[in-house]
Amino acid sequence: RKLDRWEVIGGKSSLIFYKTTDDRFALKQMSRFEYLAFLDFASLSNSGMSMEFLIIENLFYNKKISRSFRL
After folding, report:
1. Three-class SS of residue 53?
2. Of 31, 48, 52, 59, which has the highest C-beta tally within 10 A?
3. What own/partner pairs with CB < 8 Å and gap ≥ 24 does 24-27 have?
């Protein structure tokens, strides 16, 4: 699947987001804290990569959204 940069409005983390062109999946750059917590949870060692991404399913895929709230 092809990816497009997803410009997230209002975020304070300055992390990078991408989504597939069909909107089914999103890729989120993980913060250092999130990455270390993930490694601890998954019992993995550091991969040595300089940028880590998390692939997540778009829960709103193929849904009509009438209202949304920012948490």
Report:
1. strand
2. 52
3. 24/57, 24/58, 24/61, 25/1, 25/55, 25/56, 25/57, 25/58, 26/55, 26/56, 26/57, 26/58, 27/3, 27/53, 27/54, 27/55, 27/56
Q: How far apart are CA 6 and CA 61, in angstroms?
A: 15
pLDDT grade for 35, boundaries at 50, 70 and 90: confident
Question: What is the model's pLDDT at position 52?
Answer: 78
26 bridge partner residues: 19, 56
Q: What's the pLDDT at 9?
A: 65
The C-alpha angle 8, 50, 40, rounded to 5 degrees, equals: 90
